[in-house]
Specification:
Length: about 240
């Protein structure tokens, strides 16, 4: 693995996708997904200019983050269980995968205890997949104002993991739906939501063309992960 080359290639692909969409490349943030990557790989990525990293599991992050350079930024991108909310609030600057009102309520409680305001993204199950986490679109719209009213929580946007496909174009309708969902949420709240976290190693260029502000990239940076393939929020 040549990490420097991989980072440069991904950044070039981000710039090219932004060019096609008439967007400023600075409007897209690269989140490096470090699931199963050791602290030394994180440190090497940081030395090469990456500063935003995403983890899928609280326990792995709890062990890893203290061993990584101290000035990095960390987002939680995996399925969060209520009993891990306290640690997640302490470890991460944003939780991207809030998929229910009860989970948002637990995060709000833990954030209040920690005297911390917690930025979150609401995870939407855009394709209605039974195997995926995420809130159903209509349920999210119905509960949006209740979540927004919770203390110590700030909704910064939406996140989604579309169905896996070897053809990136098949993700486009799902990305478009998430962008339209964000616009509906903005109308309900009467305020802009800055982030759309969508797109992974196989489809991030299409996601950028459809308005992604954050792409979650793992494999294209660090190479294939070992172990069984599973549907995750990783990249």
């Amino acid at each position: 693995m040549n990490l420097a080359d991989n980072i440069e290639k991904v950044q070039q692909r981000v710039c090219a996708a932004c060019g096609r969409a008439g967007r400023d490349p600075d409007s897209v943030t690269l989140l490096a997904v470090t699931k199963s990557q050791p602290p030394e790989v994180v440190a090497a990525a940081a030395q090469l200019g990456l500063n935003l990293f995403g983890e899928n599991k609280v326990q792995e992050a709890k062990a890893k983050i203290p061993l990584c350079p101290g000035k990095l930024r960390w987002h939680f991108i995996g399925h969060l269980q209520s009993n891990k909310c306290r640690d997640a609030v302490e470890l991460f600057e944003m939780i991207q995968s809030v998929d229910s009102l009860p989970l948002a309520q637990e995060i709000a409680k833990r954030a209040e205890q920690a005297a911390k305001t917690m930025p979150i993204l609401l995870e939407v199950n855009v394709a209605g997949e039974t195997s995926k986490f995420g809130c159903a679109p209509e349920k999210l719209l119905a509960e949006l104002e209740t979540i927004n009213a919770l203390p110590k929580i700030e909704i910064h946007g939406l996140m989604a993991v579309p169905p896996w496909s070897s053809e990136p174009e098949k993700s486009r309708p799902h990305f478009r739906r998430l962008r339209e969902m964000k616009e509906r949420c903005e109308q309900i709240l009467g305020a802009p939501l800055p982030h759309l976290s969508m797109g992974m190693s196989g489809d991030f260029e299409v996601a950028i063309e459809e308005g992604a502000t954050m792409v979650r990239i793992g494999t294209a940076l660090f190479g294939p992960r070992t172990g069984p393939k599973a549907a995750t929020t990783a990249g």
